[in-house]
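User: Sequence recovery, please. Input:
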């Protein structure tokens, strides 16, 4: 069976890396290759408009309003915040969990002591019709643990075995990290992609020493982007939205001045910086840089970083702010001396 082979392969990797951690924790023996403790495959589907919805376990992501293109990148939080590491959510019907558990027991891969305890938990000696809660089919789900595919700190902390939750009931209060809109918001944040931050510099061509260089970003590219994460079976969702706030310019040398002096260009009327136009050479740019010496035979590594404000809204009226995110890029700038002509 592919699922069993996948689980065995991933189990081997985990065993080599974390032998002491998981030696007594067979709950991770069934983890699939995608980091999901209970479902070894991913599913991708498109709607009639062509929007892609990728299912990772029980969480679906709508990226139709996300940044797109080969030059997009991942945000880095401005604080030590990390995305949700792991969580619990509806995973299996009674019949589906039986299909997962029984082959594992028959293979004997988790040891006799564990198998005996598992059979005692999921089988009903007096009434086999109640095995795996089959008598509750359609009235709830077995919940399992899922791991964020980026494996942030704490990804290995969800060690609870499968537990049952009736439809309409809250999950057990003593089990942390059960799925909520707030967790979904963090997962959606992790999926946001923003456009490249390569700035346009002008006047065109090589930059000159002691002459202001205008810098700006294409306003059409720098609009809010968002990702929605949802759990349809629970009818909960969260949308994380990234809105551009400012551009920080770092000239790549101490021998330079920035405009404004802080080097931070705030967004204004949906634009960052102002395009250069003929006749503006003597003006001070609202966003730009002035180099005070030549780059010689080389270049200066100008760094441009956009800060994005992250907010989220979710089901039940939930919502809040998440830490701002940064995304930047470096570009080489040639700076030449102004050539004087003596007559």
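Assistant: Recovered sequence (343 residues):
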């Amino acid at each position: 069976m592919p699922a069993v082979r996948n689980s065995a392969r991933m189990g081997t990797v985990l065993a080599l890396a974390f032998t002491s951690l998981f030696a007594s924790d067979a709950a991770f023996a069934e983890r699939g290759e995608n980091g999901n403790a209970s479902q070894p495959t991913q599913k991708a589907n498109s709607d009639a408009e062509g929007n892609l919805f990728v299912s990772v376990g029980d969480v679906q992501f709508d990226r139709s309003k996300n940044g797109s293109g080969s030059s997009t990148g991942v945000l880095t939080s401005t604080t030590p915040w990390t995305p949700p590491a792991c969580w619990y959510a509806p995973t299996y019907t009674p019949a589906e969990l039986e299909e997962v558990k029984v082959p594992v027991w028959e293979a004997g891969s988790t040891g006799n002591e564990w198998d005996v305890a598992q059979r005692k938990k999921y089988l009903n000696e007096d009434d086999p019709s109640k095995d795996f809660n089959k008598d509750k089919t359609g009235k709830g789900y077995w919940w399992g643990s899922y791991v964020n595919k980026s494996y942030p700190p704490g990804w290995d902390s969800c060690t609870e075995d499968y537990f049952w939750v009736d439809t309409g009931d809250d999950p057990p209060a003593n089990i942390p990290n059960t799925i909520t809109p707030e967790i979904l918001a963090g997962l959606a944040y992790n999926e946001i992609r923003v456009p490249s931050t390569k700035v346009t510099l002008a006047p065109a061509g090589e930059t000159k020493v002691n002459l202001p260089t205008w810098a700006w970003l294409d306003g059409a590219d720098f609009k809010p982007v968002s990702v929605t994460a949802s759990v349809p079976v629970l009818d909960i969702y969260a949308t994380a939205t990234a809105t551009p706030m400012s551009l920080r310019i770092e000239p790549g040398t101490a021998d330079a001045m920035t405009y404004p002096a802080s080097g931070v260009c705030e967004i204004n009327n949906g634009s960052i910086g102002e395009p250069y136009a003929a006749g503006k050479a003597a003006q001070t740019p609202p966003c730009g840089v002035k180099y005070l010496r030549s780059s010689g035979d080389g270049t200066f590594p100008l760094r441009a970083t956009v800060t994005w404000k992250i907010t989220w809204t979710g089901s039940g009226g939930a919502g809040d702010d998440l830490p701002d995110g940064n995304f930047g890029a470096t570009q080489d700038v040639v700076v030449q001396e102004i050539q004087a002509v003596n007559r």
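Residues 124 and 202 are 76 Å apart (CA to CA).
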